[in-house]
Design goal:
Rossmann fold, globular, binds zinc ion, binds adenosine-5'-diphosphate
Length: about 220
């Protein structure tokens, strides 16, 4: 199964993508997670892309496409994957289509998580994540059992640098300018699954599975 998760920053892509990937037994490939790991490890790629993430701009297409293609070439991705946060530009979407076509493959579905702007801003404002296992929490909506510590590994939770108000604004503008047009691109291909991302994570997940049924296995 080959799925793409789209939606504005803070919509809940990572939260839902993790659940779906786990249930379907496919790797969850998040371009944001790939980039943050490179930055944390101070690799040459990490040094090159740091400023883009800090300011909320998109990393240039050639760098992004290469990084994601590298991950998708790994053995565990052979039978399928769930892409979270990629593609984010028309150029990236076309590069993905070309790569898939070259292997005789195609996407099963593209989920667009739709959430109102006020809710998105609140979700990003309280986001915390585990630096060790990547699990995502929220200070108000999805609290860990022990404040500030991951339920799974006990590590101290961290806020993302780019979740501060200035950068959030920039990321939302970037989304509307460069990523929102992709909705139409995938709609034309008959791949788009619009999912209401409001409500609790369980409610969103139930909706998502229900709507995905019709697409999976095609
Ligand atoms: P969110 O889930 O809040 O939308 P991500 O973790 O997906 O955030 O992305 C964080 C940052 O990483 C983006 O603001 C951007 O700088 C960079 N990034 C992630 N995915 C891409 C992509 N497909 N193309 C370009 N830049 C990306
Ligand atoms: P994205 O990957 O789209 O940027 P995340 O999955 O990281 O979004 O979610 C952003 C923030 O909102 C996180 O703090 C997460 O815990 C929280 N969150 C996700 N889904 C919901 C939901 N349905 N209701 C309330 N908060 C949520
Ligand atoms: Zn953890």
């Amino acid at each position: 199964m080959r799925l793409v998760f789209m939606g504005p920053p803070g919509a809940g892509k990572g939260t839902q993508a993790r659940a779906v990937a786990q249930r379907c037994g496919i790797p969850h490939v998040s371009s944001g997670d790939i980039f943050r790991a490179e930055i944390d490890n101070k690799t040459p790629l990490g040094l090159k892309i740091r400023s883009y993430l800090e300011t909320g701009e998109l990393v240039p297409d050639p760098i992004t496409v290469e990084a994601v293609a590298g991950r998708l070439a790994a053995a565990d991705c052979a039978a399928g994957w769930l892409l979270d946060g990629f593609p984010r530009t028309l150029g990236q979407a076309e590069a993905l289509d070309r790569a898939l076509a070259a292997g005789g493959d195609k996407l099963c579905a593209v989920v667009n998580l739709e959430v109102e702007p006020e809710i998105i801003v609140r979700r990003m404002g309280g986001r915390r994540s585990c630096p060790k296992c990547g699990r995502i929490y929220h200070v108000e909506f999805i609290r860990p059992r022990v404040q500030g510590a991951c339920d799974v590994c006990g590590a101290a939770l961290v806020a993302r640098q780019d979740d501060k108000p200035d950068t959030v604004r920039e990321r939302l503008a970037t989304y509307h300018r460069q990523t929102a047009p992709l909705v139409e691109y995938y709609e034309r291909q008959g791949l788009l699954v619009r999912v209401d991302g409001g409500g609790t994570p369980d409610e969103v997940r139930a909706r998502l599975f229900e709507q995905l049924k019709a697409f999976v296995g095609r």
